[in-house]
Write a structure and sequence with these properties.
Chain lengths: 545, 273
């Protein structure tokens, strides 16, 4: 931090080894978030690997039932709370202040607190691997979660998620206030890049959805250990109440996971199509509409659980309506590429992969929203297939696009193109081979979260297992790519993609601790490609490419 | 609109306290876990973790106040207030959803109890008789909290006009009223539990009542801590007619806590809905 020139205390008074522990720099905080996210990505992947080995044949004896339940719970929990969410927090911390022309977040110390609370919560969750894994799945439905009051994994799970929830609320508040207050001069609200828009919307979702899970899990804890009654039917409680409260958090949560992906894809596609994004304002409004609707359709997870039948139809209709703004985004991305000069570099290839898999996942969602169909395929592998298409094919694909796109910004080095393409090929093929057969299995009636299954599901399951291992091993290519890129230390040009984003045009790679030498004044709309000389920009891009 | 001048505060400072506070919370969480499993180590961990957390937050806040006094120049003063106000606004929004989830629990359980028993009286019953919780203590508590909202408002007005001693007197009254409220609540719990056999374990209504009022009581308690630290800080010139953002934020929060109490009284105590 000694390069900082804006403060009265250029030298930190703490020893050097505390640089990362005590930092309040949003970029360093973002780095720690992203590195930890990737660590947990492999932990969650190991859980998935064990699950897929167990399911490779109908009666495999790889793990016992208790371990299997624990693996299923921890796979979901780790992937959602310790991989996608911290990666999102990290990339927003790194990129968003640069994109709005701010020197840091509005509350740097609160930001640091959010980071370390995340790490604390993650460690509490990791303790379950040694003390006993939770048995109730990542949803921890009551009464499953309140039956065995001596199950230590369940308590660890609750307490860990509470810490993560507090961390998310802190991050959410910080994102919102930063975007509202710290934009550079000229950066009006409708000149913000769409990634900033997605950060703003994610902030809103975090501060409004996280309180619900905090309350729900507190109630579970009180019921487990202090004799309160909320969900246990024996004393007048109702397990359906748990589902209502949980999904009031849980559904906005899945939009927390996908919203930054929308932002990332909206950044990548215009750069590599050398065209402004199609329908910029509509893209921003559709994100707001999706976020708003996401609070009004939680009960579509509960069509089969039993609730007032008069309520089911509105939930079904609202769920289908959310397909409209999502479709708008899809068509706008396609229209952005239409007649553009498309450069197929790694970030763009991942973005194209995102468009395909996310579209398939979205169709699965529309199918599940329909009550007559849902009643038959709810809690089958169809749901597993659908949610992995939107979460892996959506969020994770976009995360990879972001990694390749912003790696030069973060480090000054550019990841190897060839390895990047191989990474994509195996990830894309592997994920489709894994998750597509799950739809068929679901249609045939295979229930989710089972240890063994009937022999009629054998071939599709074997296919999914093979695909899963292709997908998992493909991630080693990414790690190898990081290794050789960081070892070679070949500085790339400051703006390898020839992007017009503020983070590329006005900040060095990697950026200085206070981001900008001088705060830029914004005079144009974002994605100002093709004006005034489209051919020239394209030629430059080629020269760098 | 975006500010023309970015804020330079704290940039580049390392700060150990967020890290220490998080470690404290993690140790405290493990302590809570051990306590629930009747392990004697639990209490020690809770004390160590909680202590670390409190020390960290205390040092964090006092550093902030000291920085405010020493380097609050043109840099921080013009924009920090509005950042603080936005912050507390969104925090309140988040808190509304927190209380909302508990209110939802209460309404859901009440309606479902009705399904089985055909009568609301059963939901509110203790020892087979309908139990009324409205009484002298909640009436007094309402008076305390509403009047403290008034005094904190006029304390802020006084500070804006530079009348520091008036401000300090009104703040002291506010803090005392808040503390009386917390005391009243503790007394009420004690009375319910020992004399009326109404505990959180009694019924689903007991659970909802105690969780809602305790969450609110904790908010009042936190408010009392914040207001009294501002009052103490004012003796060391941490606030002035020009620099009163801490008080503005705290008083917005205090009014919010007051509004939640009024809703609580209307819904839980008087059962208007």
């Amino acid at each position: 931090m000694s390069e900082t020139h804006t403060t009265d205390h250029p030298h930190s008074s703490y020893p050097a080894w505390t640089n990362w522990l005590f930092t309040t720099d949003a970029k360093k905080i973002g780095f720690v978030y992203m590195i930890m996210a990737f660590v947990y990505f492999f932990v969650g992947g190991a859980c998935a690997g064990a699950i897929r080995i167990q399911l490779a044949t109908p009666t495999m004896n790889f793990v016992d039932g208790v371990t299997y339940n624990g693996l299923v719970s921890m796979h979901g929990t780790v992937m959602i709370f310790l991989w996608v969410m911290p990666f999102i927090a990290g990339i927003i911390n790194f990129v968003m202040p640069l994109q709005i022309g701010a020197r840091d977040m509005a509350f740097p110390r609160l930001n640091a607190m959010g980071l370390w609370l995340f790490n604390a919560g993650a460690l509490v969750l990791m303790a379950t691997f040694f003390l006993g894994m939770p048995q109730a799945g990542w949803t921890s439905y009551a009464p499953l979660s309140i039956l065995d009051k001596k199950e230590i994994g369940m308590d660890l799970w609750i307490l860990g998620i509470q810490l993560l929830g507090i961390s998310s609320i802190m991050s959410g508040l910080n994102f919102i206030v930063t975007i509202i207050k710290l934009r550079a001069p000229g950066m009006t609200i409708f000149r913000m890049p769409l990634f900033v828009w997605s950060s703003l919307v994610v902030g809103w979702l975090m501060i409004l959805a996280m309180p619900a899970i905090a309350v729900t899990l507190t109630e579970v804890l009180l019921e487990r250990h202090f004799g309160f009654t909320f969900f246990g039917p024996a004393h007048g409680g109702d397990p359906i109440l748990y589902q209502h409260l949980f999904w009031f958090f849980g559904h906005p949560e899945v939009y927390i996971l996908i919203m930054p992906a929308f932002g990332i894809i909206s950044e990548v596609i215009p750069v590599f199509s050398r065209k402004p994004i199609f329908g910029y304002k509509l893209m921003a409004w559709s994100m707001i509409l999706i976020a708003f609707l996401s609070f009004l359709l939680w009960a579509h997870h509960m069509f089969a659980s039993g609730m007032d039948p008069r309520l089911t139809l509105p939930f079904m209709i609202l769920t289908m309506i959310i397909g409209v703004p999502t479709g708008v985004k899809m068509f706008n991305w396609l229209a952005t590429m239409w007649k553009g000069k498309i450069y197929l570099q790694t970030p763009m290839i991942f973005a194209l992969g995102f468009l395909i898999t996310f579209a398939i996942g979205g169709f699965g969602g529309i199918i599940l929203a329909s009550i007559p169909i849902d009643l038959h395929i709810t809690n089958t592998y169809f749901v597993v297939g659908h949610m992995h298409y939107v979460l892996f094919g959506g969020s994770v694909m976009a995360i990879f696009a972001a990694v390749y796109f912003w790696f030069p910004k973060m480090t000054g080095y550019r990841l190897d193109e060839k390895l990047g393409i191989w990474h994509f090929v195996f990830t894309f093929l592997g994920s489709n081979i894994t998750f597509l057969p799950m739809h068929w299995l679901g249609m045939l009636g295979m229930p989710r979260r089972v240890l063994t299954y009937s022999a009629i599901y054998a071939s599709d399951n074997l296919m999914a297992t093979i695909g899963g291992f292709i997908m998992g091993l493909a991630q080693l290519i990414l790690v190898w790519n990081w290794w050789i890129t960081l070892k070679k230390k070949e500085k790339c040009v400051e703006n390898p993609w020839n992007s017009k984003g503020l983070e590329w045009t006005h900040a060095s790679s990697p950026p200085r601790p206070d981001n900008f030498e001088e705060i830029p004044t914004v005079t144009t709309d974002p994605y100002d490609y093709g004006v005034p000389a489209p051919a020239k920009a394209a030629k430059e891009a080629k020269a760098h490419g | 609109m975006a500010d023309s001048k970015p804020h330079y505060t704290h940039l580049g400072h390392s700060n150990p306290w967020p890290f220490v506070a998080s470690v404290g919370m993690m140790v405290g969480v493990f302590g809570l876990l051990f306590t629930m499993y009747k392990n004697p180590v639990g209490w020690m961990l809770v004390v160590i973790g909680g202590g670390l957390f409190l020390i960290a937050v205390f040092t964090w806040l006092t550093t902030m106040i000291r920085e405010d006094i020493s380097e609050a120049t043109e840099h921080t003063v013009p924009e920090f207030p509005s950042i603080g106000k936005w912050m507390v606004g969104f925090l309140i929004l988040s808190e509304i959803f927190l209380f909302g989830a508990l209110f939802a629990t209460y309404f859901y359980l009440r309606n479902h109890d009705q399904v089985y028993t055909q009568s609301l009286d059963h939901f509110y019953a203790v020892d087979g008789k309908k139990f009324e919780i409205w009484g002298l203590v909640p009436i007094l508590n309402t008076i305390f909290l509403v009047s403290s909202s008034v005094t904190v408002h006029f304390a802020e007005e006084a500070l804006r006009h530079g009348k520091k001693s008036v401000f300090q007197i009104l703040m002291a009254i506010t803090v005392v009223l808040g503390a009386l409220f917390v005391g009243g609540q503790v007394f009420e719990y004690f009375n319910f539990a020992t004399n009326e056999h109404f505990t959180p374990q009694t019924s689903t209504f007991g659970g909802s009542f105690y969780t809602l009022t305790t969450l609110h009581g904790l908010h009042v308690f936190a408010g009392v801590l914040v207001l009294s630290s501002i009052l103490i800080g004012s003796f060391f010139h941490s606030v002035s007619a020009k620099r009163h953002i801490a008080l503005t934020v705290a008083s917005i929060y205090w009014h919010f806590v007051d509004v939640i109490w009024i809703i609580l009284v209307a819904v839980i105590y008087l059962r208007f809905i």
